[in-house]
Amino acid sequence: MASPVQDARVEDFLNDKFQTLADLDTLDELLSSVQNQQSLLRSQACIVNPTRSRTPLLIRDMCS
């Protein structure tokens, strides 16, 4: 579950990206970009700590 700080950051990001109804036309591109960044971060986390011995549970799950 996201923390209040994470929720606020997501809200700020979305408010910045969607100023008008026309901005919703770029929603698919935005989602694709976020998914690509998430995938890259997951792979980087696995490369940085390949043994995963002291890696937090969520990152260990991603590297399995």
Q: Tell the overall outline.
A: flat
Helix/strand structural class: mainly alpha
The stretches of 5 or more residues where confidence is low (pLDDT under 50) are none
Q: Radius of gyration, rounded?
A: 15 Å
Order of helices and strands: HHH
Please give the alpha-carbon distance between the first and last residues: 21 Å
Mean pLDDT: 79
Tally of DSSP β-strands: 0
Percentage of residues in strands: under 5%
How many helices in DSSP terms? 3
Q: How would you sum up the major sheet? A: none
Helix coverage percent of residues? Answer: 55-70%
Describe the structure.
By secondary structure, the chain is mainly alpha-helical. The chain has helices at 4-17, 27-48, 57-63. The protein has a domain at 40-64. The chain is built from three helices and no strands. Helix 2 crosses helix 3.
Brief digest:
It contains three helices and no strands.
List keywords for this structure.
64 residues, mainly alpha, flat
Layout of secondary structure:
Blueprint: H1 4-17, H2 27-48, H3 57-63
Helix pairs in contact: 2-3
